[in-house]
Amino acid sequence: MPFFKQIFPEIATKGARYNKIEDRIEIRGSINDVKIYAIYDGHGGSQVSEELSKGFARWLQRMLAAVDPNNTGLIRKIIRAAFIIKDKQIHDARKRRPEYDPGSTAVMAIYFAKTNRLFFAHSGDSRAVLFKVNRKKMPDGSTQVTLSEMFSTKDHKPSDPIEEARIKKAGGYVTKASRASVERVDGNLAVSRSFGDFHLKQNKDIDYDPIRGKVSVKPDIHFVTLVPGVEYRLFLASDGLWDEMTNRQLASMANSAMILNPELGKDLIRYARKKGGDDDISIIGVAIKLPVTQKKRAASKPKAKTNRRSNSKAK
After folding, report:
1. How far is Cα 251 from Cα 233, in angstroms, rounded to an integer?
2. pTM score
């Protein structure tokens, strides 16, 4: 069986900036060999992140568990459609409660055990990073452990040229509220993709466009095929961590030879707080190692020599 073990219990901590924590975490164990890890970073309130955490990943997981895991095109379509449909459902709920207009980013890691593929889907600036574990025996007998980055999602920020072009095409603009501020959609939102935020989901004369609005829910979707016998470390976190730490700094802190370090999550949060981070921080850390199958082990052994007669019969 694949080794998927949380390095530390998932953590969601409140930042000094807010009265209540707006981040949410959803983890779904295997259904038909599909499992999902997700972080939702709410803003303007926790209504949207709370709504997502009540079963968005579970709903998506059930749909994905019913499809051919080799059909990557269909998997992408289902994930993309799920993001759009969920955003529309939240939008319909808002019609009954006009004041209901916060938003939430989302980042997901979706593992398909039958193909060893790890999919990543995200809208916003919550990030997922996958590292490969490298172990090297040193002359003194010790083991040097380092992490090398395999994949990272790319944050959806209004300052990104592609995002800014889409925002302007939809009739919006990107500006800073002040010199010390960050770029924002219409001077308002510091992310360019999210669930909710319907006051920014217009596309010129269209009141609500979840894909081509100034703010879009459309996720970026990628996958990595994991190699049996190789160790990996997977981290998902809200931007409260990434605003204070680079991927390389995380790799440096997480390169312990221990597979499980229950204090690592707390260490990461302490580091971010010491740097001045006052946002909510949510983190999931997972150690991964897929077993080498008996079939592959057998294939690595030298083949037995066969005589010419047996070869001629096989033709």
Report:
1. 9
2. 0.89
Burial class (CB in 10 A: 0-12, 13-18, 19+), 61: buried
Which tens digit of pLDDT belongs to each residue from 239-261?
A: 999 999 999 999 999 887 677 78
Please provide the DSSP assignment of 234-247 as one string.
EEEE-HHHHTT--H
- The β-bridge partners of 133 are 147
The CATH number corresponding to 3-156+218-297 among 2.60.40.3080, 3.40.50.620, 3.40.50.2300, 3.60.40.10 equals 3.60.40.10
Phi, psi torsion values for 198, nearest 5 degrees = -70, -20
Measured in degrees and rounded to the nearest 5, phi and psi for residue 255 equal: -90, 25
The Cβ-side half-sphere exposure at 80, using a 13 Å CA radius, reads 12
Longest dimension (CA), the chain: 83
Tokens of 62: 């059930």
- Closest by CA to 110, choosing from 87, 84, 80, is 80
What pairs with residue 284 in β-bridges? 236
Each residue of 159-200: pLDDT tens digit? 999 999 999 999 999 998 777 678 999 999 999 999 999 999
Beta strands in the chain, from DSSP E residues, in sequence order: 3-13, 23-31, 34-43, 103-112, 117-123, 127-137, 143-152, 174-176, 183-185, 195-196, 220-225, 231-237, 281-289
Q: What is the pLDDT of residues 50-87, one digit of tens each?
A: 999 999 999 999 999 999 999 999 999 999 999 999 99
Distances (CA, A) of 48 to 105, 189, 218, 268: 9, 15, 16, 26
Distance of CA 136 to the CA centre of its chain: 29
